[in-house]
Design goal:
With 337 residues, this protein is mainly β. The protein has helices at 6-12, 256-260, and strands spanning 31-32, 34-37, 52-57, 62-68, 73-78, 83-88, 92-97, 113-118, 124-128, 133-137, 143-147, 149-150, 153-154, 161-163, 169-172, 191-194, 200-204, 210-215, 221-226, 233-238, 250-254, 270-272, 278-282, 285-289, 295-300, 307-311, 316-321, 324-329. The chain contains 2 helices and 28 strands.
Length: 337
């Protein structure tokens, strides 16, 4: 069994010899999909003829992309395979962490990590399906459990997270990682907040299958996607001064039309650009939704698509789409760049 250590960090992504900007190894990359313009404003965010490049393939279900700024690499999960992978512009693919979740032999259906994010100190924070927790990787490589229970009951399988500038963590808890849902200890699927002092607060349980989660640029709105065919929606929740939210959200977009016409995928992970637009996985690939809830366009990926994240100089969108990792250049930038 591989034990995670600071040495594994150094070797896995070749921290010592990271490329400078523009030093990417040349490659004739496969391109996939297409870009669908549904509103003229979409052309201000992306060139419709921009190629969607395939960077690396061979994963069972790629998820949770996060760009590590100071290292210049992308980390992402393969949830069923229980691994976190790394992609470097110069060095390509490597294994970053194995296992990323459950370390035993007989775990849950999806034993690995899912959503990934870095905190203000650059530490990796992980949604761990297999151990049904949210944990943080410390500078020495050890793992600190930040939340694994609510009111004494184990979570279902923490799925995705976003970190507020205060340090508070917001995360979703659907049951997708569980082998047997009958063994759930919590009989609903909640959205939670973990404060900096470790207090866990239930924000809402109105969604049957909450999944992707994101914050607006002003941090006054929490977005939550629901990956549930009867209502494949994206909700917005107002954040109160104490960091909690209203229990009932406002649906800003319903993607049922696209799900009903057979476009692959459901609402899942998402990220936000500096203009407040949601870049959200959903039927067809990545849906770009304005803060007012208008669908501006779609990146048609041709396969179910789990998540996306901005990286590089901030204008490159990385996409986890089924068995592959893709990227496309945009005209905007993600939050934090």
């Amino acid at each position: 069994m591989l034990r995670f250590s600071i040495g594994v960090w150094a070797l896995a992504c070749l921290w010592i010899s990271l490329p400078l900007q523009g030093q990417e190894a040349s490659a004739n990359r496969e391109t996939v999909g297409s870009i669908e313009v549904l509103d003229p404003a979409f052309r201000d965010l992306i060139e419709p003829k921009s190629p969607i490049e395939v960077l690396t393939t061979g994963y069972q279900w790629s998820e949770g992309p996060v760009w590590i700024k100071d290292k210049g690499v992308l980390l992402f999960s393969d949830v069923p395979k229980n691994k976190i992978h790394c992609w470097s512009p110069k060095n390509g693919h490597s294994i970053f962490m194995d296992p990323s979740g459950y370390e035993g032999k007989n775990g849950e259906k999806e034993p690995g990590s899912n959503g990934l994010m870095t905190d203000a100190e650059g530490r990796l924070v992980v949604c761990d399906h297999g151990n049904r927790r949210v944990y943080r990787v410390e500078s020495d490589g050890s793992k600190t459990t930040l939340a694994d229970k609510f009111e004494g009951k184990r979570f279902n399988s923490p799925n995705d997270l976003v970190i507020h500038s205060s340090g508070a963590i917001y995360f979703t808890d659907p049951p997708y990682g569980l082998r047997d849902e009958a063994k759930r200890e919590i009989d609903y699927c909640g959205v939670y907040r973990v404060s900096v002092d470790g207090k866990v607060t239930l924000l809402t349980k109105e969604l049957e299958r909450p999944n992707g989660i994101a914050l607006s640029p002003d941090e006054k709105t929490l977005y939550v996607a629901q990956s549930h065919r009867p209502a494949p929606i994206y909700n917005a929740y107002s954040i109160k001064p104490d960091g909690t939210t209203d229990a009932n959200g406002k649906t800003i977009f319903n993607s049922l039309k696209y799900a009903n016409q057979g476009d692959p995928g459901m609402p899942d992970g998402m990220c936000v650009d500096v203009r407040g637009n949601l870049w959200a996985s959903g039927p067809g690939g990545i849906l770009v939704i304005s803060p007012a809830g208008k669908l501006l366009g779609r990146l048609m990926m041709g396969k179910p698509t789990a998540n996306c994240a901005f990286g590089g100089d901030g204008s490159t969108l990385f996409i986890t789409s089924s068995d592959r990792i893709c990227r496309v250049q945009t005209k905007t930038k993600g939050l934090g760049f």
